[in-house]
Amino acid sequence: MSKTITQKIFEKHLIEGKFEPGKEIAIKIDQTLTQDATGTMAYLQFEAMGVARVKTELSVSFVDHNTIQIGFENADDHRYLQSIADRYGILFSRAGNGICHQVHLERFGKPGRTLLGSDSHTPTAGGLGMIGIGAGGLDVALAMAGEPFFLTCPMVIKINLKGALKPWVSAKDVILKVLEIFGTSGNVGCVLEYGGDGVETLSVPERATITNMGTECGITTSVFPSDGITREFLKAQGREDDWTEITVDEDAEYDGIVDILLDELVPMVACPHNPGNIKTIKEIEGIIVNQVCIGSCTNSSYKDLMTVAGILKGRKTHPTVSLVISPGSKQVLENIAMNGALADLLAAGARVTEPVCGFCIGNSQSPQTNAVSVRTSNRNFFGRSGTRDAQVYLLSPESAAAAAITGKMTDPRDLGMEYPQVQTPERFYTDDSMIITPSLSLVEIYRGPNIGEPPYNTPIPEDIQGIVTIKVGDKITTDHIIPAGSRMKYRSNISAYSKFVFEIEDEGFANRATDYRDKGKHNIIVAGIGYGQGSSREHAAICPSFLGVKVVLAKSFERIHAANLINFGIIPLTFVMEADYEQINAGEEVMIPNVRELLAENKPLIAQINNREIAVNYSLTDRQRQILLAGGMLAYIGNKGAGG
Ligand code: MIC
Ligand code: SF4
């Protein structure tokens, strides 16, 4: 039978179930990655599993998010992570070595393998022909302990790329087009598999831009074939031996096919405050721009920065624009330093930062009040830049460089210059000295005062006797639930971090929830469609669970967040009739009787609100119901034993 690339890789890794879309399957994970902001919690949970060393082929711990180091917290976290890596057999990519996804692509990714990462942009690895999936830290910890990863077997949709991109139009415009077609919700359980003659016109980092930002569609992952271009990339990294060919079989059947004509694409932009809010640059031309940020795991490759350097060479940044450039990795920075392009960027007035997430996560370079900030990153959620009223637009490096020069939104085709065609070196300068190999000795684990305890919840009670502590609308992201930016340094300290839950939506939430919890009431969150979009941060479940949230009742959930809620003992319930969302208000008392019993028997639930009754639903596997009943994954595996 003819097979898609997705099916081939999944089938090679199946541990439970069959490749039948919609059914639960379990797959073997070959590689894992963590980053520091989700990593500390992942490793605290890994330690609690009592496993002597990681059981994967390769596990890497990156430090790239919390590197600002105002106060001791970040540095203490880094040291904790380094000691854990050394002891348990994990490679440690030090702060300054680069953004996890870019470095993983350059140094570790292998076609045909599976990668589970505690970061939602782990699908970046799909640019190399891998299945890269984002998950909560606890699921990644389980994979490191040798446990399979459970997920719903995805449908596979082919994105048929035809032709070739015109000058000034680039990979970012392709993924912005995909976002225009698919939007940011309603795509749970799909893989986007790229094919067509246009694929061979795109290099691996360009493919990785596309698979990276595919995350914003809310899909399981995206994948490209592994072909001659993949081989060339790995050769330039000195890793040709890691290459294997993976292509789709002729006549393979897809669950859907969408054509994209590359020749017809034009420079695009995602407008505030959602990556699915797509226009062409021409439609918003002339808007005055205050800040331009180039970098992030979406667009910070050698090719991206060389293109920007080519555009800026001999020109100056507009006097009212602050131009920030964050290279994706030390490798990219070193290569552009050696060939002189870095000097061109500096001469143009760029503020070049160390290779980290930085501006993208809003923990530095927040723009001025009311600013228009244009960025090459992947998320423009409300408040994420660190400046509440900033208007953030997402676009390609070419369009960002054009705005840096003119001070306004500009279609780069109108710059009146020749497009700088970048030649990628046959062999990059590479130096892995910032990646530390573990000694596996019984080093003492360093625990500064910022390192807390692994989070446990209590089992699901007999009845939910609660109160609607907050009612929110559609497309609430994990950035709305628990902000990153300046608050992110508390990632290892749940009681401190929990004070900021829903800070952006409702500053009184945390106090109210604490008060209700202490009075013995269960907190309930009511939400619209696509609840929990965006980041994989499990803190968006852990912190509410710490505040006594037992139920989220929403119109629909995004995949990673729903899994995180279950892992931390919060029941994700949906409305049987979506219109009932209107029947329930913040501050109302809610009773859901016999939850424990009915959940155990997989029977429907009824929520009683004053004199009204609302039918609520859940779609949980046996395993997920057992996890909830136990009070979350740590309690569940405590009973069952992990990695044994
Ligand atoms: C993000 O881009 O939102 C993050 C920060 O990388 C998150 C992870 C986190 O919150 O630590 C993600 O994408 O998963
Ligand atoms: Fe870092 Fe931004 Fe990428 Fe998240 S999206 S991993 S914060 S660069």
TrEMBL record:
<keyword id="KW-0411">Iron-sulfur</keyword>
<dbReference type="InterPro" id="IPR006250">
    <property type="entry name" value="Aconitase_put"/>
</dbReference>
<keyword id="KW-0408">Iron</keyword>
<protein>
    <submittedName>
        <fullName>Aconitate hydratase</fullName>
        <ecNumber>4.2.1.3</ecNumber>
    </submittedName>
</protein>
<feature type="domain" description="Aconitase A/isopropylmalate dehydratase small subunit swivel">
    <location>
        <begin position="503"/>
        <end position="575"/>
    </location>
</feature>
<dbReference type="GO" id="GO:0046872">
    <property type="term" value="F:metal ion binding"/>
</dbReference>
<dbReference type="InterPro" id="IPR001030">
    <property type="entry name" value="Acoase/IPM_deHydtase_lsu_aba"/>
</dbReference>
<keyword id="KW-0456">Lyase</keyword>
<keyword id="KW-0479">Metal-binding</keyword>
<dbReference type="Pfam" id="PF00694">
    <property type="entry name" value="Aconitase_C"/>
</dbReference>
<dbReference type="InterPro" id="IPR015928">
    <property type="entry name" value="Aconitase/3IPM_dehydase_swvl"/>
</dbReference>
<dbReference type="GO" id="GO:0051539">
    <property type="term" value="F:4 iron, 4 sulfur cluster binding"/>
</dbReference>
<dbReference type="Pfam" id="PF00330">
    <property type="entry name" value="Aconitase"/>
</dbReference>
<dbReference type="GO" id="GO:0003994">
    <property type="term" value="F:aconitate hydratase activity"/>
</dbReference>
<dbReference type="InterPro" id="IPR036008">
    <property type="entry name" value="Aconitase_4Fe-4S_dom"/>
</dbReference>
<dbReference type="GO" id="GO:0006099">
    <property type="term" value="P:tricarboxylic acid cycle"/>
</dbReference>
<dbReference type="GO" id="GO:0005829">
    <property type="term" value="C:cytosol"/>
</dbReference>
<dbReference type="InterPro" id="IPR015931">
    <property type="entry name" value="Acnase/IPM_dHydase_lsu_aba_1/3"/>
</dbReference>
<dbReference type="InterPro" id="IPR000573">
    <property type="entry name" value="AconitaseA/IPMdHydase_ssu_swvl"/>
</dbReference>
<dbReference type="InterPro" id="IPR018136">
    <property type="entry name" value="Aconitase_4Fe-4S_BS"/>
</dbReference>
<feature type="domain" description="Aconitase/3-isopropylmalate dehydratase large subunit alpha/beta/alpha">
    <location>
        <begin position="7"/>
        <end position="407"/>
    </location>
</feature>
<dbReference type="InterPro" id="IPR050926">
    <property type="entry name" value="Aconitase/IPM_isomerase"/>
</dbReference>
